[in-house]
Structures are given as structure tokens and as C-alpha cells.
Amino acid sequence: MASQFNTSEFRRSDGPLQHNAATAWAAAWTGQGVTIAVVDTGIDIDSPEFAGRISSASRDMFSASTNRGYNATDDHGTDVAMVAAAARDSTGILGIAWGASIMALRSDDPNSCVSDSGSTDPDADCQFADDTIASAIDYAAAHGAKVINLSLGGDPPSALVTSAVSRAAAAGVFIVVAAGNDGNANPDAFGAGVDTAGSGAVIIAGSVDENGVISDFSDRAGNQPDHFLTARGEAVCCQYRDGKMYIDGDGYVYLFSGTSFAAPQIAGAAALLAQAFPNLTGKQIADILLRSAFDAGVTGTDTVYGRGILDIAKAFQPIGTTSLAGSTTSLPLSDSSGVTSAAMGDATARASLQTVVLDEYKRAYGVDLGPTLRGAVVSQPLHGSVGAGQRHVSAGNEKAAVAFTIDASRERGEMPFTGLLRLSREDAEQARVLAGRVALQLAPYTQVAFGFAESGDGLVAQLQGEDRPAFMIAGGSVGDPGLYRTTDASFALRRQLGRWGLTLSADSGKTWSAAYMHRAAELRGQRDRSGVSDFGFALDRRFGDITTSLGLDWMREDATMLGAEFHDAFGLAGADTLFLDARAGWQFARNWRLGGALRNGWTAAHGGGAVARGSRLTSRAWSLDLARSGVFASGDSLAFRVSQPLRVESGGLNLELPIDYSYATLSPTYGIRTLSLTPQGRELDAELAWNGRLLMGDAAASLFIRKDPGHYADLPLDEGVAVRWATGF
Fold first, then answer.
1. Which terminal residue of the chain, N or C, has fewer Cβ atoms less than 10 Å from its own Cβ?
2. Alpha-carbon Rg of the chain, whole angstroms?
3. Sheet bearing 565-566, strands edge to edge
4. Is 260 a catalytic residue?
5. Prediction pTM value
6. Looking at 14, 40, 108, 335, which residue is catalytic?
């Protein structure tokens, strides 16, 4: 955690604190293994802040004949290196990349940083020759430096320097150069020339104070705003002497200021990125730091702050479109990776789905897609029973029967669950005639039925002549698909074969996503739907007072798995479900009937994409009811039912997902991640229902209770009383 770095050493370190470096440190990125070349006045080789981290490639770039080495004779190069990489040693300060190595390339002209007497002059204007700078840049790139810091300025760079910068950029090196300390509207000519030569791998560093306000002395972005970034360069702690933070006799430490010290803040950030994401080129590092900057000044890129203020935490976040490692299909982390169905309830409430995604720069991130999975919206069956505003019209004789369900609201057409699913107005208008069926007697032993927006199971029940009690809440198990769907057309054919009846049925329609699928680039919060079809056959027979039925139903989904929908990145190509339905009723006394039904389902996902073998589900629904007819008057009925809607009892989706990523081969390692689709909750419904004639109309009353509605264990009991009365005019 970032809080573990909240020490006195950290609080003295202005850059890391202001630029959110601890976020990267908490993920173990310290710059270790990355070399920062500091082209400057050398380094204090005895400072404990660099112990063991001064690169063996460090050298004096001016001339071997001077034999002066790279040990600094002034503080500038040492201070720059401190800002970039001072050690985390519980003393003094620590740099942005406190684990990085420093390649000290001393490039100042001999005697330009000392007084006439030969002693170090802190106010001296050190001089740097262009050929020395160019040699240092080439040397750094050739000896493994990933980052080059140029806290230099002045006249436009010569062709020697710009050519060296171009070569380093082409080799994948990142370069940061100070903007200059004249308070001008544009960066100084040296920085501007280096930027132009860098082809996007260079950042010009301006300075801000502790409040993020541009420093008075700092040159502005001016005509180089696209590659201009600001960082802390004003009143930076602290000057060192003899390897220790210098405190004068009055207890004050000396601070230093300048764009020279804003630049190594950015150099350190680049080293952190280079360690964490070794695939990045210098140009990509520059682009990431610029795109992730905290916007300051005028909104967007401006002529003062350029792209903004360095923000390391944001630089480590994915940028652009993300995708599963090894996949070309985008998977934005703001999208929903999946929506489960009604039969799965709260299965994803505590789900974890660890994988690896790549961002626009092919940076690998370990993510948990579990929080992006969504559970189904809990159905509200009472709405369909008493709030749908429907009117039923039927007519028929022994040879034919016709029935329609019509929208009676005159305002909107809603099927029983369209309020829940929030159909578009266009869909609702098309649903004014909500459902219809036609049944015909073709021969003494043959019947056929056709349905519009009517399930095949309903047609089968009609042809079998079943007498089912009417309930508002507690559904029967047979025909429960465990998902939200509509039926476009259905068909059933029944043939009486002696004492047995054989019924064939088929229907087709669409599944509806049980919650909004948020797809940033596609649906924009709309519901998705895909095709579903059913084919089944059933045998029925009466044994005296007992009626029985046994059937098999095959449901084929084009793009879902028992109604669960997943992001295209997973490649789910649908599923097949085989349902076994058993139903029985016993007329054990006059006007009394005991009934029960059981549905068992076995679902197998179609392979392909990330969907691996073994992606299977088992599901179950059941109901028991007791009914009494003629309770208060002829034609009325009182019934009690206990039921469980279809629920996944075991199984899940096996996904072959990237679980690791190699920057050496730029390829992922795959493993199987199992997403359990079995809910913790188990909905149980109990309902006492009465139906009959009342006051020249048809009336119904219900007393009900639902435990774990929608198979959500954390939801409270759903209980209540419902009354419905309707009449014709």
C-alpha cells in the first residue's frame, strides 16, 4: 500500500509526494534494473544516496587527457541525480526512481564550474560543448541507458546534438530536457531543438511550485506545447554536503530551484515505467507521461503548462482501449463483461475472474473481471399479473379455438415483464397484440396449434387438456426456461395413440439480457438479445384419476448460456440445454386435486474463443400444489402452491484466459478460470390463490411470500396480498 511509504524521508521529498510516485512503489516499481544517464557535471561518488547504484559505465565525456573522472566538483549534477534516484535509506530525501542506477556522464568544460582560485563556485555558469553533449547522448544509448536527463540549456543545439538525439530516440531511449529559467513565453532554444529532433521521444520540462503553479522563472510551453510537461522544480529539498543533507547553524536546509530539477522528476517517472513495462519505447514513455498529465491552466493543451503536470499514478493506469492479452477484441474495463440470467441469481455477487489485459501500449495489467459481472434484475411477477393492463379475447367450438391477449392500457403495449426489461417505445408499440393462439382438430385423434408470442409449452398444455390451477406468483416448473425471453412463433401437434398421447412442439424467439450490458463502443446501455429455439416431444396418459406427462425439450441458444450473456471477447457461441419434464395430477376426491411438476436441465456451452471444455450447468425447478374447486360457489377455486423457479444447481463457465504475460516474448500464458454460475440464494415461493366470479366480473386474490427473490440470498422476503377484478363492457 502507498501508505507504507509515509515516512519523514518521504515527506521531505517534494517530487515523489507531489507527483504520486508511491502508487508505483506500492506495486514494487522502483526503477530497479533501469539506468538513467545524467549528462551533467558529474556526481558525488561518495554519497550514500547512490551507494551500489552508480553505473560502471559512468565516465568523464570531455577528454580522457584531463584525467578528472566523473566525481563532481559542483552540486548541480549530484542534485539532479538526487531528485531522480536518491536512495530510500531513512535519511535525507528519496528520489522518484530510488531503485534505478545512475550513469553519471560528466560533460562540463574543464574549469567552467570553478572560480579563478580553483575552488568550486556554486554560482558559476558551467559550460558544455555541443560535441561533448552529443558524445554523451550516443554513449548513453550505446551502453544501456533507457532514460537520458539533459538539465542543460542555452543556444540552439548543433547538428551534432540533434543527430545524436535522433539516434537515441530511434534506439528506444527516452530523453527529458530542461525548459530554461528565463521566464520566457517559449522554451529556450536548446530544449526546443532537442524536442524537434526527438520525433516524440523527448519531453521539455517546465517547473511548478508546491501548489502546482507555474514558477516565475520557468520558461513556458509557448510554441512547443505538445511535448511540454511540468514538474516540481521550485524550492526542492535539499542540498547535500559530504553525502548528508546540509543544515546550517540556524537549523535551515538549503533548497534549490530551476527547471534543471523539474527534468529529473520526469526522468525518474520514465524509469519507473521502463521497469514496469519493458516493452515500451522512449516515444511511448513520453506519450504516456504526456497523456496522463494532470490538466493545469487552460483546459487541454496550452501555451503555459503544455500538457499539464506530471501524474505518475495516472501514468500507470491503462490508457486507451484494453483487450485480453493475446486477443484483438477490445474489452474496455468500464464495460460489463457479463450478465447472468434469472436462474443464476446472485452467482456473480462474490465472483472473481483474474486475467491479464493489455492497454493501447501493450502494457500488461492483472485485473479481476469479477466486479464487472452483473446479476439478473429480479423479476416482479406481480406486475405481470395485476399491472399489465391486458384483455383476453377467445372464441371456439369443438373443431377450432382462437384466443388473443391484447394491450388494454391504450397507452403502451407491455408483456408481463416489459416494465422490468424496459422495452423501447418501438418494441412496446409492436406488442399491442401481445399474444395469440389458434388450435384446430384435424382428425378424431389429431390436433394442431399455432401460437404468436405464445410458448410451445402453453400450446402443449392446451392440446393435452390440462387443468392447471391459476396462480399470480408461484409458477409451475414445466416450461420455466430460467431466462428472460420472448417467443415469436410456436407450433404443437398432438396425436392420440391408444391410451397414450404424443405431442411434438417447437418455438423460436429471442433471449433478453437480464440487465443492461454496458458496452462503451457498441450498445451504449441498450439491452442485447439473441436467438433461441425449442424442440420437444411429450407423452401423456391418464390412469384413472391420475394424469401424467413426461417430456424432453431441447433449447438451443445462439449467443447465450441459459440466458447468461458474456462479452464478445470471451467468444461464447451459444449453448444447448436438454430439459426433462415430469408432471402428474391426482384427483383424489371430488373437487380436490393434488399436483406436482419437476424440471431438470443439463446445459452445455458451445466451444470456441475462450470458452473451454467442461462449461456445463445442471438446473432444476419444481412445484407442488393442492387445489379445491367449488369452495364458495360453483366455478370458483382455492389452491395452494409451493414452488422453486428454475435454479442452477451446479456448474459454471470454464474460460481459458491469459494469466501471465511475458515481455520477452510479448505473449501471454493461458490458464483455466472457472466462473461458478450457481447462486447462493434459493427462491422458494408459497401462494394461496382464489379465483372466481364476483360482482358480475372475474376476480382473483392471492396471499404470497417469496424467500430469496430471484435466488438472491441477501434480499428480504417478498410478501404481500394481491387482488384483481375485471369485467367486460
1. C
2. 38
3. 373-374, 338-339, 565-566
4. yes
5. 0.82
6. 40
